[in-house]
Amino acid sequence: MTSTASATQAQVFNLTTPHLLQGITSDERARSELLSVLIKVYASGGENRMHAHVHEDHSFIVLEGEATFHLDGEDNVRVLKPYEGVMLPKATYYRFESSGDGNLVMLRVGASPPGAPKQAIYPEGGDKSRDQEPYGRLERVEASGRQFGEVR
Fold first, then answer.
1. Which is nearest to 108 in space by CA: 86, 130, 90, 92?
2. Residue 106: which of 86, 88, 130 has the closest Cα?
3. Domain that holds residue 43
4. Cα separations (Å) of 152 from 25, 145, 147?
5. Contact 52, 125 (CB under 8 A)
6. Does 2 have pLDDT greater than 50?
7. Least enclosed by CB within 10 Å: which of 14, 62, 63, 148?
8. DSSP string of the chain?
9. Residue 27 contacts residue 14 (beta carbons within 8 Å)
10. Is 49 contained in some domain?
11. Euclidean distance between CA atoms 49 and 83, whole angstroms
12. CATH no. for residue 40?
């Protein structure tokens, strides 16, 4: 839930989000002039093509599941489990995929200079596109029952 407060005011948010049977979730929870906070859920797959964000430093923190990251190329492989993360300075090439059982749930925090365009590129050239990410094209299908972050 993104707060309706302006970017110069404190914003309160939560990370509760549905688990998925199929597809991905990438929901913004808060934003300021420099910083963005998203909750991301992957039923399977991930961001499977190597890419880099031109203007944005960002970090992924695994909250549930397991993510296999390929950093600065295919040979530097790191497997992240819950409560582990990776920080990616701008122009760092990476890709990742869900490699555990069940959904991969991650917190994504990014920071960009004011007014910088959102831009990610592939190593072979061209701008990153959801259409070119296999799991980005799947219809999002939510699982019934308990959501991630739900307190009972």
1. 86
2. 86
3. 20-130
4. 23, 12, 10
5. no
6. no
7. 14
8. ----S-TTS-------B--EEESEEEEEEEE-SSEEEEEEEESS-EEEEEEEESS-EEEEEEEES-EEEEESSSS-EEEE-TT-EEEE-TT--EEEEE-SSS-EEEEEEEE--TTPPP-EE-TTSSB--GGGSGGGGSPPEEPSSPPBT---
9. no
10. yes
11. 24
12. 2.60.120.10
65, burial (CB in 10 Å: exposed 0-12, middle 13-18, buried 19+): buried
Q: Would you say residue 25 lies in a domain?
A: yes
Q: Residue 1 pLDDT > 70, yes or no?
A: no
125: left (phi over 0), alpha (psi -120 to 50) or beta: left
pTM, rounded to two decimals: 0.90
Judge whether 10 lies within some domain: no
**Whether the Cβ atoms of residue 147 and residue 17 lie closer than 8 Å to each other:** yes
The tally of CA atoms less than 13 A away on the side-chain side of residue 118 is 8
